[in-house]
Amino acid sequence: MNNYQKLVQSTEHCTEQIRLMIPMEKEKRSAIISDDMASLQQILFSQQAAVMKLENLENQRLVCQRELGLEGLSADEVIAKVPEEVKQQLIVCFEDLREAATELKEFNAKALELAKASVQFWDSLENKKTSTIDKVTYRPNGQKPSEWKRSSSFETKI
User: Fold this and answer.
1) Helix (H) or strand (E) holding 63
2) Residue 71: which pLDDT band, with cuts at 50, 70 and 90?
3) Gap between the Cα atoms of 37 and 40, Å rounded
4) Interior CA angle at 123 toward 118 and 128, to 5°?
5) pTM of the complete model
6) Predicted pLDDT at 12
7) At CA 72, angle to CA 70 and CA 74, rounded to 5?
8) What is the spatial distance between Cα 101 and Cα 97, in angstroms, rounded to a whole number?
9) Up-side HSE of residue 148: CA atoms within 13 Å toward CB?
């Protein structure tokens, strides 16, 4: 296998790994929505491992690119410099990689947005709970605070 084929193969491996991570994002979103912290924790551990594997695959891809003298180049720049016999194959590989990465990024952004909303919801409940404690209708001895009128709040004046 020549170095160009190694680049194609390593790019395909990165794309496959990203596609394996997309269902994890969907599961994470479901766990956040259902407030299932045990599942969420397990998913996050799995995601960490998947991200580490993706980093290794990406490093392998970058090594292949460097060995071909294409270090630091964007996908479009790489395509412009490769021989015609691998150009079309790399175009397809890089397009697939971009699509998979974009889809993963979108699912991750949605999960992050839900997580932030969930935290805000629980924070607002906690703030409401503590503010309600400060505004009790009756004191512990069962009497109304003295600053309140001793009449019903339902009286209607006609």
Assistant:
1) helix 37-67
2) very high
3) 5
4) 130
5) 0.72
6) 97
7) 85
8) 6
9) 12
| Distance, CA of 13 to CA of 17 (rounded, Å) | 6
Query: Is the Cβ–Cβ distance between 7 and 60 less than 8 Å?
Result: no
Distances (CA, A) of 114 to 27, 46, 106, 108, 121: 13, 19, 12, 10, 10
Sequence-distant (≥ 6) Cβ neighbours of residue 27 within 8 angstroms: 39, 43
49: helix, strand or coil: helix
Q: Tell me the pLDDT band of 116, cut-offs 50, 70 and 90.
A: confident
Question: DSSP letters of 78-140?
Answer: HHHHS-HHHHHHHHHHHHHHHHHHHHHHHHHHHHHHHHHHHHHHHHHHHHHHHHHHHT-SS-T
Token duo for residue 58: 């990406």
What angle do the packed helices 3-33 and 84-134 form, to 10 degrees? 20
